[in-house]
Amino acid sequence: MSTMAIEVSGLTKQYDNVAAVKGADFKVPRGTICGFVGPNGAGKTTTIRMLLGLIAPTAGSGSVLGFPINEPEKYLASVGAMIEGPAFYPALSGAENLRVLATLGGFPASRVEELIDRVGLTGRGEDKYKTYSLGMKQRLGIAAALLPNPELLILDEPTNGLDPEGIQEMRDLMKKLASEGTTVFVSSHLLSEIEIISQHIVMLRKGEVVFAGPIEELLMNQKPMIIVKTDSADDLVKIAEIARADGHSATIRGGEAHVEGPHEWAAILNRRAFEAGIVLSQLTPTLPNLEETFFEMTGGR
Amino acid sequence: MFKVFFAEWRKLRRPTLLIGTFVAALFFNGLITSFVYLMIDSPQGNSDRGRTVGREVLGLASGSTNGFASIGGLLGIIILCVFAAQTAQEYTYGTLRNLLVRQPRRLTLLMGKYAAMKSFALIFAIVNLVVSIAISYYLSDRARVSTDLWFSADGWSSIAHTFINVYISIVFYAVIGIALGILLKSPISSISIALVWLLILENLIGAVKPVTLEWTPGNQLATIAMGGSEEISYSHALTLGTSYVFLALLVSSFIFAKRDVAN
Description:
Largest interface: A-B, 29 and 26 residues
Structural class of chain A: alpha/beta
Radius of gyration of chain A: 23 Å
Helix content of chain A: 25-40%
Structural class of chain B: mainly alpha
Order of helices and strands of chain B: HHHHHHHHHH
Shape of chain B: globular
Largest sheet of chain B: none
Strand content of chain A: 25-35%
Strand content of chain B: under 5%
Shape of chain A: elongated
Number of helices of chain A: 10
Radius of gyration of chain B: 19 Å
Oligomer: heterodimer
Number of strands of chain B: 0
Strand order of the largest sheet of chain A: 6-7-8-3-9-10
Mean pLDDT of chain B: 89
Low-confidence stretches of chain B: none
Order of helices and strands of chain A: EEEHEEEHHHEHEHEEHEHEEHEH
Number of helices of chain B: 10
């Protein structure tokens, strides 16, 4: 049995002149929670669709649970997925929607009731799907993904529409599944969520993998930062100039100057700012979090 | 394929779809079958395109199913709309991706859908046959039509033949509906294109150049339901209709199996 739940090499999807995914290489070890992040249009959903056999790669290869991705019938019985949000028949009840998929997949009908309860839809299962709130639809989508008791769970933006309690439940559910041996491959825009729950991360930008590996490795490799706030925007520009003059890279975003440099240099920066007549309202030495790293690597914000 | 069949039936049996489809069909069935008997003496005729079906024809062994055969084409169009919508909605709702994750063998999924469609069409045809014969029988007395031969051995044979013809026609319409749903991925486009072609364009072209009616698909399928007509033989309609349906089946199956599911 392969130790990797997902393994892709040179995976490419070309649409006319646009490459949605360009030569992606990454591995996802079994039993981990792996975050899949990237800006909109980076190719996350296209990659997920290729893993599920919904679209054919233009080039490259891949395997899921040890089986090649061009033979999805060999592995999909052990895979649960929610792609691009929940999609169900509006005129059927939530439970009946699950029964359609349970019948199709050959899963026992009792599993439907069990999952309705598990995702917090108790008492609403027989209501029509079209009457559900966004959060309830999302929960039903999770239930559908859990139908096969999956070895690999692929979730695309699972916390969309969920309230804070729902997000916490989702986080707990993913952790519990991972502790039971399920591999969770989750794409999300909530990078703080990904940072909390993931052990691994795959980061995409414009169809290319910019990082794939353990999340600690990603964050450890990042340079320490000093975040500076001033009373005026002009002073921020001056701070950036001071930093650059001393050989430190600096960017201004979100009303803050982000200066790359060791934490000890914060005192020097403070003194230089004082000498230049700039009053600092904040000076915070920090290690970049996932969000910072994400923007750094994907050139976003 | 059985799993797909039963999964499809969970969708087909929903009350809104069942009631809507059967009420629409039974309404037109009742209207047209009644028309044959209630307008039997009308100078404007009592059948399609102003034709008259007299008492002597209705009194034959095949008389009981005259109304049912006349409504066959319309029943087919109703079924076409239902299955075009059912198929295209899988794309618009995004539910096809869920189905393909649970059944990645695309042709198996499609064959299961066809099997469910055929069983739905069978029930649909049986109900309409029974209702049409019941209405005919009820109105025969009032229209002074003899029913002596209707339930003779020849009568039952005629019922069976007409039923098979209408059933083939309905299934052919449904295959074309599914093919349109797959090709166009939109319920509105699939249904409107089918209706505009079958109800308007085909008749307009036929009115301008009557010879085209020997080749147009809708006319072949309606002729199959009627067991042949004065203008087109049954064997011609069946051969040509089967060719059209086979082509639709081939193209749509290929596209369904190979096309990326990106929505």
